Amino acid sequence: MAGLIPKTFIDELLTRADIVEVIDARVPLKKAGKDYKACCPFHEEKTPSFTVSPDKQFYHCFGCGAHGTAIGFLMEYEHMGFPEAVEELAGRLGLTVPREGGVAGAAAKEHGGAELLEIMQDAARFYRDQLREPPGRSAVDYLKARGVTGEIAAEFGLGFAPDGWDHLVRALGKDDAARERLAHAGLAVKKEGGGFYDRFRNRVMFPIHDYRGRIVGFGGRVLGKEEPKYLNSPETPLFHKGRELYGLFRAREAIKREGRVLVVEGYMDVVALAQHGVDNAVATLGTATTHDHLERIFRFTQDIVFCFDGDRAGREAAWRALETALPALREGRQVSFLFLPEGEDPDTLVRKEGAEAFRARLRQAAPLPDYLFQTLAGQVDLGRLDGRARLVELARPLLSNVSHGVLRQMLLDRLAELSRVDPGKLAALMSAGGAATENRPGAPGRAGAGPKEPPSMVRLAIAMVLQHPELAAKVTDRSTFVDQELPGMPLFLAVLDLLQGSPGLNTAAVIEHFRGTEHEAPLAKLAVWQHPALAQDVMAEFQGVLGQLHRSAIKMQTERLLHKQRVQGSLTPEEKVELARLLAEKARHQPVSDRD
Fold first, then answer.
1. Is the pTM of this model over 0.90?
2. What are phi and psi of 92, to 5 degrees?
3. Where in this chain does the record put each Toprim domain (predicted)?
4. If you classify domain 111-232 with CATH, what class do you get?
C-alpha cells in the first residue's frame, strides 16, 4: 500500500533511538543496576515496578503488565497513533520518515500531518472572524442568550460558520489542490458533479483540540431548525471522535488540581461549567464513551465522574459507560455516576444552582460498584432463590471483565452477600466455564506423533534469541526444527528468520515486527522473562537448548514412523531409509548408561 512506513526504517529508528531518553522526558527514571526504574505511569503504585531496559530498548511493568518499545510507549502514554509516534521519534533523531510508494504515497500521508493542522488553524481563525461580521450577529445573540460571556467564548475559540454554500471554500480554497485539502480535513464536501461546498453552515463553531492543544476537528451547533442540531467533523487523519474529548487540553491542569474529571455530554455543558469555575469537565463528541477515552483520561487522574440526565436515555448511556469502564478498572482507579434531575443538564443546572451546589452534587455521585449492583438488583427479586441465582448470572459477564485484583475480589464479595452464596463457592461458579484456555502459538500434534517436549524449552529458545539477538547467527541448520510440532516452534522459526535476514536488530525492533499479531503479547512476556539460564553463560546454555530440541525432533520423527509401521504394517523405501538414519542418530545421542 502506498504511503506505508517501511519496516526497514522502523528497524533503524528503534536501533538508533534511546528508550531511556524518551521515557525519562515524561516519567523521571532512576538507575537500578543495568536498568532504570520508576513508579508505573499506567497504574497507581508506591513501590516502583516499572523497568526500562537500555539493552533491550524495552519497558515493562511487573505490576500491571504494561510493556512495549519506545514507539509503543508514545502510543500508550501520549495516545498517539502509530504513524504519529514514529514521526515523533524520528523528529527527535532528525530523521525524515520515508513512505513506500514514492512521492505520491508520501504526499497522501502528509495530508494527516502539519499541512492539515495548518488548515484547521486557518479555518478556526476564519470562523472566529465571522463573529465580528454582520451575519455573525445571530451567533453572538445565541451565545449571549445561553449566558456565554465574550471572555469565555474567546477562551474556547468559539466562532461562526455563516449561512451559504461556499464561504469557507472561497476564503481558503484558492485552487483545486487547496479545495481538495479542505475536503480531506473534513471542512468541505466534494460534489459528485464537481466542485465543493462548506460542510458547516449557519452554525456556532466549537474547535476541538487534541491532548496536545492542536485543533483537529470542529463541532457545530445549528442556529435554525435544521438537522442535526449538532454536527461534528467526520473521521479524518487528524480527528477520531472515539479518541478525542472536548475541552481536555484546557482542563488538564484543573483535573490534576481537583484530582478528578467530570465527563459530560455536550460542548455547552463544558463551556458553561468553565464559566462558573468548574474547569475539570470534558465532553464526549456525540459518541458513547470508548476505551480510548478512558485510557486517555486516566493519564491525568484516577477518578472519573460521569454526568448524565436522569431520564431513560441518560440511564442507558450511563450503563454503556459502565460496561466500557469495567475492563479499564485497576486498583486505584475510580469511576462514579451523577444523575441530574429530569429536564436539567450541567449547563442549565450550574446556572441555576451555582458552582458550589453543583460541586456538592459531584461529591454525592454513586460509585460504580454501588450503581452496578443497584441496577442489577433492581432487575430481580432478591427474596426468591431463583431471583438471586438470576443476579449471579447477570453479574457474571460484567465481573469477568474486571482485572484480577482487590477490586474484583471486593465485587465478588458484594455479589456473594447479595446472592447469599458462600464466597468460595461463588468464586468457583464464576470461573467455571469462564476461564479461557491458554492460547499458545503452534499447531497441535497429530495422533500417534508421540510425546511432546515441554513447551517451556521452545519458550526458552525464543526468549534467548529475543533477549540476545546475536544468538540467532549460531543456528546454522534450522531444517531440524521445521517439521517439529512443538507449541511455539513456528514463532521460534519466524524470529530466527527475521534476525538472520536482518542482522543487528535489537529486542525492541523484533517485537515491533510482530505488532498487531497473535505473537506480540507472548514475545513481550518473553522479552522480560527471568529464567535462570538467561543469567548464566547464555551462549553455552543456548547450545544446550538447541541440542535438546534437536534430540526431541529425532525422537518425534522416529516415533511417528514407528507408529505408522505398527498401524499400516509397512513403510515406503524412502521412509525405511529415513527411519534407519533416525535410529542411528538417536543411538549416537543417547547416554551410554541408557544403552544397556
1. no
2. -65, -30
3. 259-341
4. alpha beta
